[in-house]
Amino acid sequence: MLMSTGQEALWLAHRIDPDSSAYNVVLAVRLRDRVDTEVLQRALTALVERHELLRSRFPATDEGPVRLLMAPESVRLEVREVPDTDEESLFRLAQWAGEEPFRIMESGAFRAVLLRRAPDDAVLVTATHHLVSDATSQWLLVRDLFAEYGARTGQGAPVAPPGAVTPWDEQVCAERDFVASPRGQRAAAYWQGMCAGLRAAELPTDRPRPAQRTLNGATHEVRLDTATARRLRGAAADRGLTPFAWLLGTFQSALHRSGAGDGFLIGCPATTRFAPGTREAVGYYVNALPVVGRFTSAMTLLEVVESAQRQLRTGMAHARHPVELLDGGPSRGPLFRISCTLVATDRLPVPGLYEGPVRLGGLRAELCDVPQQEGQLDLTVEVLQGADGFRAVLRYNTDLFDAATMERFGDTWRRLLDTSLDTPGTRVADVSLVAHDDLAFLLALGSGSA
Fold first, then answer.
1. pLDDT band for position 213 (cuts 50, 70, 90)
2. Which Gene Ontology terms of cellular component type are present (predicted)?
3. Does residue 107 sit in helix, strand or coil?
């Protein structure tokens, strides 16, 4: 069985640090009704039979990593009884269940753990290693699992995704055919030309970078209030731009103003679900598109945003070419240390789960939003776009940055965003990063009149 270029890169990352949870993708759901675990196991077997990567393991051979299929029945639901657990402890147990490292060579890259506090109160934790899943996939597998469960308990028929799921080997072969084709060669030339002479964006760190890369992380959140979200949508629409391009441009501006330099690269993970059979499949359908930040003293916030929009549109035309194949060379270092991506929560396969309780397979369910995927890079940003607004999840490497540094960076981003909405023609270099009250206080200190 075949592995994609992106999977091979993730396999190597796991091999270097097999005990890290940085690449664990987790979706935990609180269930408020009695769960029949025997039925849930049968639903789980049906799930992994449909989505083959969930029953794959990835051993090493002399020729490199390979993918081997396991029997669907070998993937077992783990039930952990946790009676008399308080809310905080239950949340922490769900987080730990998601963080447990995978033994991808021996037992695969997927697990399902039911933390049962009472007969009608439990948390189902579904966790995958990133090499078999992505953000959309994690929601697809939960949707399909509960659809199977509901059909077996008489609570409704399974959701029938349109068309067959593309076998993973076909996806890998399509990737390899594209890379070898004239279109693939043009895409490679485009990316090489765009990245030429540029290095990965780096923020000044609070501590020296360790000689060996680490994957220790934490999370900081930046939330936009309803009024700001409304202004962002309106400003973007008035200029034919997307809200994400606007956020991305101001994010690049925040990196520049925070010490990342005048020219740098960040990654924007994008979907590679181009064929109809991939849109309902669980798998690693991701390619990180290089996005350039270039700044001069005269550059305005709107110009940066417009550049981000152009790059995203053009980049998607070349998104089939795996970024891992770009020839950066060891002297340049990694292509990315910082990434920024969009997740449209209102379009995920389980509608409403982000906003509040829903029914899944006849069971009352709500999201248990546990921290995850922390420390993959210096900084990874996930912009969550919902019907009501936006929030940005900043996951950072704690061996490099303090929490206060990430909070300060979030404030810088927010100040640049607010200025861009008020006066988009403002030069990036002219935006004050200190509030007026704070500035007056500092000036008073300097004059000796405070």
1. confident
2. cytoplasm
3. coil
